[in-house]
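SAMPLE LOG
Freezer: B-3
Tube label: C17
Construct: single chain, 711 aa
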Amino acid sequence: MRVQVVVATPAYSGLDRSLTYDSVQPLAPGTLVQVPLGRRQVLGIVWGACTPGDTDPGAPDPAGNESDAANGQARSTPMTTLRTVEDAWTDLPPLDERWRALVGFAARYYQRAPGEIALAALPPALRTGPAARWRRQLQRLMSRPVTPDPPATVAPSLTDAQRAALAAIEASDRPLLLFGATGSGKTEVYLQATARLLARDPLAQALILVPEINLTPQLQERFRQRFGEAVVTLHSGLTPVQRLQHWLAAHMGRARVVLGTRMAIFASLPRLRLIVVDEEHDPSYKSQEGARYSARDLAIYRAHLGQADGCRVVLGSATPSLESWQAAALGRYQRVDMTERMGAAPWPRLRLIDMRLQPRGTALAPALLHAIAARVARGEQALVLLNRRGYAPVIGCGHCGWKSGCPHCSAYLVFHKSERLLRCHHCGHRTPVPAACPDCGDPDLQPLGQGTQQLQERLEAELVTLRRPDGTPVRIGRLDADAVRASGALERTLQAVHHGEIDVLVGTQMIAKGHDFRRITLVASVNTDGALFASDWRAPERLFTLLMQASGRAGRDAAFVSERGSTVELWVQTAHPNHPLFAALARHDYPAFAAEELQQRRRAGMPPFSHQALLRAEARQLPVALQWLQQASEATADLPGRPHVTLYAPVPMALTRVAGVERAQLLLESPHRPALQALLAAWMPRLHALRASPAGRGLLRWAIDVDPLQF
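STRUCTURE (predicted):
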């Protein structure tokens, strides 16, 4: 028989459909196979069967070769002999129809090859390792007990709001938007919704998505306390063997609960009945590499595929994305509110520090330092947010104006004092700090601006004489991408905060997301204004979300706050204290902020009232990329949907050069999603042809980003 097989081919290859192979045995769709592709042996997935007359001689490569020349046959001669499947992994159950439907939808919507998405969703050890490895892991998995007994834990009693949320999850036939204030008990709702599901259906599975790896350990601990070894994780921080083990457990139905980051949306879960997207607003759910998919949006579609079997999807957040908020307003989602914090925990009071009244160059206002010191002296903790890692964003020469620019990027090299290095956070270039200015020779080079390392150093200097209630020195911790680079560093830092071993935690936005810190009574944001007037039209939404989420880390333990007699506070240093954003923040009024922001977007015709896509191009010379984009734009004149789609002029990206590559983009916008999708689908063959034409000479890469978040 002949089978259609998808393999991992990049989008720019033009090989965006399944390939036809002969097979000596019938193979069910979803079976993993080893097939020849050119001179290589690659892993593929059977996507369907076909009869001998189904082979299309006009297909890009009907015999599964990378090129006809590789097989020694001319393109003009129809190929009647197909290459044969080398090996079929029939001892592994096929990937089911709904999984393939999810991949197929993602490929169509995000304009990628199905094989590119399908194969990338498999664990690396399955894609590239020998079959003997996964067969050993499968044997070990199957030898374990089918349903290990969970630990004997007693679930806490629920509030009225939590009970209402659980009832809505079980009854709703629409996606459910759980609008829960920080500290309102959303996680307990997820836990009990999962418990009820597993009690009803012993074979059911649940998928819990979190935006970043650093949230996985604490959530995993809570789920394992409730469900035992039936819980596995899927994220990029696992070793290849661990990812293989956990993927097999999910695929075989042994794992009842899967916790993971955005990549877990493509996990093979044959009996998936519940999907939870925690912190659904977070931009980390949108991939910025390869197939630029949104795990949140695919969660909605995956639940739709399983709706006949009762699959539910819950989007949870204290600050929902404006897209989800608008969908709930239109009735596409059901919104459930949990507006009160658990245990009557107090809301943080907003304290604005007008930096115009502070001496020039002030990093931490004296009033804020005094407030932090007072908290620590009482045995409380403080959290200080600065969304910029490193010691300083740049070093410069005061004599000639030289600044530490990256030789490969349109960005500055960040000063890392502890390593005495200048490092680019975009391309990874690193170089020692020069002894003198490279331009004028002046040895007096100064750090300009402030990063988390410098802030930690300043706090240590300011609080050096302060003592904790037990007489020990104050301890300042830091949580950012640099501080957690070493294995286990993240877990150690979080444990130190939970156990009271860190008094003041300095960090980037990682400290604002979902952590259940019990002793923090003060949160401060020390560099806030950059987002108030940024060119990115999403910046106000992101800033409000960040500050609301950060403030939610404070005052979560009402008994602790009452015992200390403290006031829970959010301090914000700003030169614009009268900005309307702060008025809504002071009231913890996300609905008011969302209403105002949506009104502005409606007037401007911006998402969610329009739909966007970006065509990006990369070349060694910027004019090459811009010219190719211009010709790509002109190629849309007669495409379906074109009258309803606006194409803007090609422009360089905000960060134009990265790693020596110049980048440009072309924005497409339409009030009608079907019109935009129709144009993109019809455009793809022309883009491939344009890439192969003389106009594409010098072009390195191109890609389409549907529903972009970064411009």
